[in-house]
Design a protein that fits this description.
6-stranded mixed beta sheet; 58 strands
């Protein structure tokens, strides 16, 4: 018989109280059975009262022709009287047994590649062995099988459909095979007796609510943390939310070490795992997904290897994201706990929730910081001081919420006004600071300020072309925008603000915003503070460069440099090395001959001197560098 031959349909009386109807046409596949010699059980009738067991024959004969039974349709769907069915090995496909509430066992034919949607839903099965040929389990396939206590899933299984085992309230354990790729939404919803589940560490997708309501779970077993971090969990998809304890084989994981190969820890990866007491996160991790450590209330420490890398981990955004530090509070750099978080230079941003819950008392933020994300320092209940070393960064919402011990904010003096008027710091006390990292530093502030005794400030009051010396005069009050050279031990100095009407003739040019300067500017040559031929001094630029906000550079007339061709100048402080500190009146004195220079270092003929301050150079060497005042 060929596929164009009319399908054969016939009744077969079993003699056991039931009549089968067979057909060479398979209504499930929509095709005629192979060569017309195979038949498909399509329906049943004449079922005797009291019958409960059915045996399907492997072959049947009609009109002298013997047919092989290779398929069973869905004639038993909803048959509550059916308690047992014997299926021959010749059968390769079966239909629905949904609603067979008293059917306790069935043999699924080897050769079936899929269990279809609702195929055994609401049946009375107590156990099921799924053959190795099956690769997919459809939606609701075993949903509502309240007597099902055990299932054996084949190693070749690739997917478990939506709600496939939902409501299997007696199912006690589950082993997911290694080749599985996806577990559908609500796949094991309300399997309330499930105590253990084994899930391989690979790129599985586990849908929303896959294990929701599995209230008896006690342990989740996996074989690989690297693979576990890559599992894509939906909300309530991670069984750890109920089990709370993760095992590698037989050993519970308490001290979690994220492998070096991991750059992203997926969302919900360790949600609810209260058995964790520490987590080590290496510098390669760039992303920690939504709620990855939500509910990990047993965490006591977070161990990192790079504080800068930690600042840049992306947690995404949204409610209840939670850095592991939110629970642990104690942050370790290697073996040392961090009490004062000193963020490395070069870091430009603190990401969302980066230090949420940090238990340290102090945080220092470098001048390179330009943005601080939402909730970055929220919940830092021990935090008392925060120090900024640069301009006011941009802030997300609730950056310092819950920082109940925070009292003092320290910021650069040059940015004090911006910090005060930002509205970010509420009732915290804001203190202007000058921070210097070397003995000598240039500085410029947007506000006028006074100097403490421990920190000296100088203006560049004159330059001697013949000696290449820059005369530096100490000042005690610095007007806003004035460039000065600071001298003192490296450290932080709190400076009081106050108005001043002082006006200086100063060769140092201050900048309050980052400014690019060229080697020359018209008739002037520009110098920056550097370590060069004369040690720490001012040296010319080889190419254009940027001066940071709050710094200063030196500007001298190019003509004053031509005689020496100087590329650098030496520093001479007027309060050191026996130099005169007073401003004197010019007189004849005993010098054989005197040369006069204005405060910009330009030579002034004696006969043209006018009222003002000048620097004297004498031919006999006496009084060189002395300042005089001519009335």
């Amino acid at each position: 018989m060929t596929s164009t031959t009319r399908a054969v349909n016939f009744d077969y009386n079993t003699g056991e109280g039931i009549t089968f109807r067979f057909s060479t046409w398979n209504s499930s596949t929509g095709h005629e059975t192979s060569n017309g010699t195979e038949v498909y059980l399509s329906s049943i009738r004449d079922v005797d009262e009291g019958i409960s067991m059915v045996e399907i024959p492997s072959t049947v004969t009609d009109q002298g022709i013997t047919y092989t039974v290779t398929g069973i349709g869905s004639p038993f769907s909803g048959c509550e009287w059916l308690t047992q069915i014997i299926i021959p090995n010749t059968v390769v496909s079966i239909g629905s047994f949904a609603g067979c509430s008293n059917l306790t066992s069935i043999t699924i034919p080897n050769g079936m590649t899929a269990i279809r949607d609702q195929q055994f839903a609401w049946s009375g099965l107590t156990s099921i062995d799924i053959p190795s040929s099956v690769k997919t389990i459809g939606q609701n396939a075993f949903s509502g099988c309240r007597s099902l206590e055990s299932i054996n899933l084949p190693e070749n299984l690739e997917s478990i459909g939506w709600s496939a085992f939902s409501g299997c309230s007696k199912l006690k354990s589950l082993v997911i095979p290694n080749n599985i790729a996806s577990i559908g939404i609500e796949a094991f919803l309300r399997c309330t007796s499930m105590e253990t589940v084994t899930i391989p560490g690979n790129n599985i997708s586990i849908g929303w609510s896959a294990f929701e309501g599995c209230s008896s779970l006690q342990k989740v077993i996996t074989d690989d943390i690297e693979g576990w971090c890559k599992i894509s969990f939906g909300f309530e998809g991670n069984p750890l939310s109920y089990a709370h304890h993760l095992y590698i084989g037989e050993d519970e994981v308490h001290d979690l070490v994220i492998p070096n190969s991991i750059e992203k820890i997926n969302s919900y990866a360790f949600e609810g795992c209260t058995g964790l007491t520490s987590v080590s996160i290496h510098a390669n991790v760039k992303n920690i997904g939504f709620c990855a450590f939500n509910g990990c209330t047993g965490l006591e420490k977070v161990i990192i290897e790079d504080l800068g890398a930690w600042c840049n981990i992306d947690y995404g955004s949204g409610d209840d994201t939670f850095s592991p530090l939110y629970y642990a509070h104690h942050l370790f750099l290697g073996n040392e706990e961090i009490a004062e978080a000193i963020i490395p230079d070069g870091i430009t941003s603190i990401r969302y929730e980066a230090f949420q819950g940090f238990g340290g008392t102090s945080i220092k933020l470098p001048s390179t910081i330009t943005s601080i994300g939402e909730l970055a320092f929220s919940g830092c209940s021990n935090l008392t001081t925060v120090r900024f070393f640069g301009n006011l960064p941009s802030f997300g919402d609730y950056v310092f919420s819950g920082c109940n011990s925070l009292q003092d904010i320290y910021c650069p003096a040059f940015a004090y006004s911006a910090f005060v008027h930002s509205g970010v710091f509420g009732n915290y006390s804001i203190h202007p600071l000058i921070s210097i990292t070397n003995e000598l530093n240039t500085y410029c502030s947007t506000e006028s300020f006074s100097l403490p005794e421990t920190l000296k400030a100088y203006i560049a009051s004159g330059f001697s072309p013949s000696t290449g010396e820059l005369l530096l005069t100490r000042v005690y009050k610095v007007p806003a925008g004035e460039g000065v050279l600071l001298k003192g031990e490296a450290g932080e100095y709190e400076v009081p603000y106050g108005e001043t009407d002082m006006v200086y003739s100063n060769l140092l040019k201050g900048v309050t915003a980052a400014t690019t300067i060229a080697p020359t500017d018209g008739d002037y040559t520009n110098f920056i503070l550097a370590d060069g031929t004369y040690g720490i001094g001012f040296y010319t630029l080889s190419q254009a460069g940027e001066i940071a906000a709050g710094k200063a550079y030196l500007q001298l007339p190019t003509s004053a440099l031509s005689a020496t061709g100087s590329r650098g100048v030496k520093l001479r402080f007027d309060d050191e090395d026996g130099m005169a500190t007073a401003i004197d009146e010019a007189g004849s004195g005993e010098d054989d001959h005197q040369e006069y220079f204005d405060m910009q270092g330009r030579s002034v003929p004696e006969g043209t001197l006018k009222s003002g301050i000048y620097i004297v150079r004498s031919t006999n060497g006496n009084g060189n560098g002395k300042k005089i005042f001519i009335k």
